[in-house]
Design goal:
Blueprint: E1 2-8, E2 13-19, E3 22-29, H1 37-45, E4 50-55, E5 66-67, H2 70-78, H3 87-100, E6 106-110, H4 120-123, H5 129-135, H6 144-158, E7 166-172, E8 176-182, E9 185-189, H7 210-218, H8 224-233, H9 236-241, H10 246-254, H11 258-281, E10 287-291, H12 292-297, H13 299-308, H14 318-321, E11 328-329, E12 338-341, H15 346-359
Parallel strand pairs: 1-4, 4-6, 7-10, 10-12
Antiparallel strand pairs: 1-2, 2-3, 5-6, 7-8, 8-9, 11-12
Helix pairs in contact: 6-15, 10-11
Amino acid sequence: MRVLVVNAGSSSLKLSVLDGDEAVESAHLADWQGDTDALGDFVGAADFDAVGHRVVHGGWELTGPVELNTAVEREIERAASLAPLHQPRALAGIRAVRDLVPDIPAVACFDTAFHRQLPEAAATYALPRAWRSRWGIRRFGFHGLSHEYAAHRTAELLDRPPDQLRTVVCHLGSGASLCAVDGGRSADTTMGFTPLEGLVMGTRAGSIDPGILIWLQREAGVDLEDLHEGLETQSGLLGLAGSSDLAQVLAERRDGGLDATLAVGVYLHRLVTSIASMAAAMDGLDALCFTGGVGEHSAEIRSAVADRLGWLGVRIDHAHNEDVGGDTIVGVADSRVATVVVEAREDLQVARQTRRVLAS
């Protein structure tokens, strides 16, 4: 079954046709505005039997991949307030492709689904019972498609059964999260009710004291819309160093930039301490996996993380780490924790889930 994978980001759109695990056709629309016409040439010329859509949030009801219909689209739309940068874009992609190929079956695959079996202790916020029961407030987790794929690929690289590995997957990109994958299942993760929680990201602050938001509203008069914009689009590396591009911030740090030096310090502090907390959730660590744009391409970040986690058993081959191409082991052979770099392949995970749903 050839699957057209549709991955709608916050501003771009990635399209690829997978025959088995091979991408035979692909396109990247860097500035997609949700219109059908921009997809017409690619979709009209491509040869595929099914469509798989990556959707960031499954909300409260959609806990696994599912064939799309009107009811499913309503649930996706219902979760838009939980992932406002991504959910409307995913719906636009679903509707645009359906308009072009209405008779081809389509499946929605959710980033939150991999985390739906989080232990209750990891999924529950210590909030009033009435809030949790009335509004379903819980930790959903995100980047699940990437985390699940990377954890299984890590096991393949190490020639170990996935159910015998405790792996921390570091999905590091403009958006970033960690996942503790214990025996192939999500045991903890850094993102929560929304994608704002956790690591320092390109434009998102990650975890902060919620009292800051109360104070900004009550004492400084900052309104809800400005709070939303500030947290989603003006924080993180951008707020610290004036750029959301970590490669640029690292370059400015090498040139002695004080803001960039602070930004990288904050970024690494949150990342390293969070990896340690993920390991603690599994009572230990067998493998550390780097994936995503930063995880795959920044030898400097991988090296800094490994050096600060030596006490945990992480040791990397620094020469090999500087010359990474494709999926590879960068840890030294006798290190207690294996360290790998894995190319992010959400498209593969979406295609596989799509085939399973339509074959059942």
